[in-house]
Amino acid sequence: MMDRIITLLSKDMLKYEMAEVPVYCKYLVGAAGVVIGTGLAWRWTRRRRRRAVLAVARERKRRERTGALERLKRQIENNNMPSAQVEAITQLTTKELLSQLKTNHLTAVEVLTAYQIKALQVHQKTNCVVEPILEAIEWAKELDRSSASKGPLHGLPVSLKECIAIKGYDVTAGCSKWIGDPCQDDAVIVKVLKQQGAVPFMRTNIPQTMISYENTNPIFGATVNPHNPKRSPGGSSGGEGALIAGGGSVLGIGTDLGGSVRYPGSACGIPAFKPTSTRVSKKGGRAVLAGKNIQSSWGPLGRDVDSLIAFLKAILVPEMHRLDPALPVMPFKDEVLNETRPLRIGYLSFNGVFEAVPAMTRAVVEAKELLEAAGHQLIPYEEDFGRILDLFVPCVFADGGQEIQEILEFDEVDDAMRVMKQVTSLPIFLRKLLAFALKPFNPELSGKLKAICGLRTVSDLWNAVKEIKVLQDGVIERWQKKELDAIVCPAFGCPALSNGLIQHLSGIMTYTLVFNILDFPSGCVPVTAVTKQDEADMENYPRITKQTKTHQILKKDMKGTAGLPVSVQVVTLPWQDELCLRVMSDLEEKVRQNTKHN
Predict the structure, then answer these.
(1) Is-catalytic flag, 161?
(2) pTM for this one?
(3) Which member of 61, 161, 282, 448 is catalytic?
(4) Is 448 a catalytic residue?
(5) What is the pLDDT of residues 241-284, one digit of tens each?
(6) Of 159, 212, 237, 260, which residue is the catalytic one?
(7) pLDDT tens digit string along 227-239?
(8) How far apart are CA 44 and CA 65, in angstroms?
(9) Catalytic status, residue 421
């Protein structure tokens, strides 16, 4: 009864109050409701239509890719190259290949055809190719016809990460919004590579936005590891890693913001190199988060360290500086690469943040012994990179993830990017509140949420930039006090992970991304493979740090990994790229000798 009375009173009061409201106000309220409702309906309709348009674009792009691959297959069939010849050519080292091309024992067309055949075979197993560069055959024919002096990379097929511009081809970065927008010109390094005789021939797969260590996107799908299809090739240059490790390319070019060249190199068991950030031109390509104050590098992945050296020698020439005059003029220093003085090298197994799995730390010990056998002096080196690493995510996502939200607004979001999309869609205050609430129960997730809040003021950004410089100076000073030429450390926190797993882990990427923050040149070299004993040692992992969710996941995922490649990372001070390559070369040679003896 009382409820009935209250209801009637409420209705009467509302009627009375509305009666006191002027008529024009009622109309304004009604009009406002119509406007808001119409706006929401229009926004929903626009979103739905835009999503439908992008879905059609993705399907069209996939058909274009299929058609291009079919045209390449028909072109190859017309050449009728025997499989024995394909294997003979694709088994040659980079030095051997370049030598036979220079002396006309092999033609550019023969080498290109062999690698096109091999690349298609690898693609069938790994889904590593976005699309073939169909003009490559004409470029190779022109090289064979030309009477001009041969460039240092004459006839060498080179694969390119999809984000690197090739005239007439889309650069999507795995995002649907950039389909149907072909590049008007080649990237600077593509122009220089062509001038030096190289033949760009394949474009390789990437993750959506390239801000991921997986290698999957809603346009072209997921790339898998050639050593084990249940494992990831790493990202974001994972297409390159898979293609080269499978034998379908001898040299490829990728990009590296937090390990995107080195992690695929490590996961796939091939050498890879991140130069000092402004040593190699990055002009001409798709840059996501271009406004960040931590710079990416464009660098090579290859069959051997000689491939990486050949790329740097060919690219660091006056033509690159003419096309991109913002770069410092610094030709390749052969004298540094060829010097024979013994070096003083530090070795580090723990970075103060994340304990690498036993296979990775064992590889550091093996690398130490091999470099000592090469005549170098190895000394223990300790560094806690914790504070440096704390700055990475806030600096890269200084905008709180706004750009990522804009890029993915209407796109189909890949599983590897789903958590990122969801987190960056939350208001900043809610992220901070969740980070605070989760800290006692899940410190890893709490840290991620807090970091991705970004930097909210100009003052915060300036302070972060200043702090990075102070921390960089501190690391350099400590290196110089120890008179170190280089250090050797784990290439990553673990070998290749199961597909789709890395987005649930924290810390394993800290071994690579710290050297992006510091802008130190660094590269990975395969040294060994996971053993049964490494798997058994995971029972006592971690030994130094407190166990976290990431460690628990790794203990399960590292089962059955025996045989997967294990790499170490070589690091030098800024602008000492040639010295880094020298140490990598010495180490690779000792690994090769050791393998022959065993």
Answers:
(1) yes
(2) 0.93
(3) 161
(4) no
(5) 999 999 999 999 999 999 999 999 999 999 999 999 999 999 99
(6) 260
(7) 999 999 999 999 9
(8) 32
(9) no
